Amino acid sequence: xxxxxxxxxxxxxxxxxxxxxxxxxxxxxxxxxxxxxxxxxxxxxxxxxxxxxxxxxxxxxxxxxxxxxxxxxxxxxxxxxxxxxxxxxxxxxxxxxxxxxxxxxxxxxxxxxxxxxxxxxxxxxxxxxxxxxxxxxxxxxxxxxxxxxxxxxxxxxxxxxxxxxxxxxxxxxxxxxxxxxxxxxxxxxxxxxxxxxxxxxxxxxxxxxxxxxxxxxxxxxxxxxxxxxxxxxxxxxxxxxxxxxxxxxxxxxxxxxxxxxxxxxxxxxxxxxxxxxxxxxxxxxxxxxxxxxxxxxxxxxxxxxxxxxxxxxxxxxxxxxxxxxxxxxxxxxxxxxxxxxxxxxxxxxxxxxxxxxxxxxxxxxxxxxxxxxx
Length: 374
Prior knowledge:
Elements: E1 4-13, H1 19-27, E2 34-36, E3 39-42, H2 47-50, H3 64-74, E4 86-91, H4 97-110, H5 117-121, H6 125-134, E5 139-144, H7 150-164, E6 169-176, H8 181-190, E7 215-216, E8 218-225, E9 233-241, H9 256-267, E10 276-278, H10 285-299, E11 304-305, H11 308-311, H12 318-332, E12 351-356, E13 363-370
Parallel strand pairs: 3-7, 4-5, 4-6, 10-11, 10-12
Antiparallel strand pairs: 1-8, 1-9, 2-3, 6-8, 9-13, 12-13
Helix pairs in contact: 3-6, 7-12, 9-10
């Protein structure tokens, strides 16, 4: 594939309302967690987002996930070429879950549905609202929902559209706002929550003996094109993998879907191996172990980190958060890993592999490297 260049990034998560603030909190390893229904969560508490009130008809009625996507898109708006053909591709695992839960609760009590319940809860409203807000005169929108791999899959799709010549630029990434009563209850039923302390998610902790996943929220969107000018990092490989394991998530103990997606992503790069990996690693016993088994089988001992110990698990937006982390690590030449990690320090930080996976064992891997042509 032709390299796809990352020009600008719109970012909002528990770590901050923009990429610079978030990176500073990563470097200082600031704990940005709170509580919801008795569980640790990585919830956004940002005055800039709270005060955000764009010129968008019906903004206040939109689901929080869409509002987060608009906030991230606003950071890209100024530098966007509004006259060229543009793909808007956004992934979300649960979609408009907050609005949906409110609508169903009202329906179960009254027997009546709200006038706008359907358009506000459909998957298509996410990317279409972002496209309309960006005011591009020639855009096509695609919403992805492939569990927790949704955001990275949307970016992979954008790479395909750009390489095919269907569009000249793409805005791609993820948006998720799953910190709701029903979603928390579902995760409790699965028994995968349970982290404690300043850093409750113990992603990549050696000999992890309990599940410590923490729900997070956020939106990360990338401005992509085939033009190398002014791009710090480029995407040079894309990989996919699925499997039918016997676990509840579909993952096998040796992470066959990860093995396939990582091999596929590397095939296009010419690398023997990456300098480092930003793993999916959600802080669950079986999830972390499966991915690490796949990594060790392909690469042996290699520097590996996960954003989840800082950002929580943002479901469909978690892959874009990981890609954002990889871009910052390459740009700043500074490795970020949890204190309990036994990972090696990378000797160089130019080539990074990013993984994401979700229920159904739908793995996606992206290979990125620094762009020397600025």
